[in-house]
Amino acid sequence: MDQVIRLKNIGYRYEKRWVLKGIDLELRAGEILGILGPNGSGKSTLLKIMDGVLKPGEGEIFIRSRPFHGLKRSAFAKEVAMVSQENTFRFSFTSLEVVLMGRFP
To answer: What is the average per-residue pLDDT within 30-57?
Structure first.
């Protein structure tokens, strides 16, 4: 299967405190990943880095073997989508409508 996303030596810190350091990860098409850990261990930070919301302090990210930093947001959105667990909407949407919103590049 094709490699979809690869993280190489990812690190991130909030001010002086490193919350992620030396993270290596490869995800291939069709794989399912679960991220487990106690509160404050960096799970959400890792997801935000993988979604491009946060820029890693060190390391590299590749999307289909292309450097992440070279992709336009619209090209990235065609490959990666994320639905946050903490969304609130002013209008009622079905689950399908929420997912489709995340797929619009």
So the answer is: 90
